[in-house]
């Protein structure tokens, strides 16, 4: 987790995506980038 130069906060998250049968379609790390407005999260983007 860390703050970027533009003031957003980046968090690394392990993500597993499965189909309806339970087979793994993707397994890896994605980045959640949070933009804040005061004490509230205004926006969250997911970067692969």
From TrEMBL:
<protein>
    <submittedName>
        <fullName>Uncharacterized protein</fullName>
    </submittedName>
</protein>
């Amino acid at each position: 987790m860390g703050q970027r130069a533009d003031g957003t906060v980046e968090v690394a998250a392990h993500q597993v995506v499965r189909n309806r049968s339970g087979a793994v379609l993707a397994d890896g790390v994605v980045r959640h980038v949070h933009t804040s407005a005061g004490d509230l999260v205004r926006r969250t983007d997911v970067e692969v």
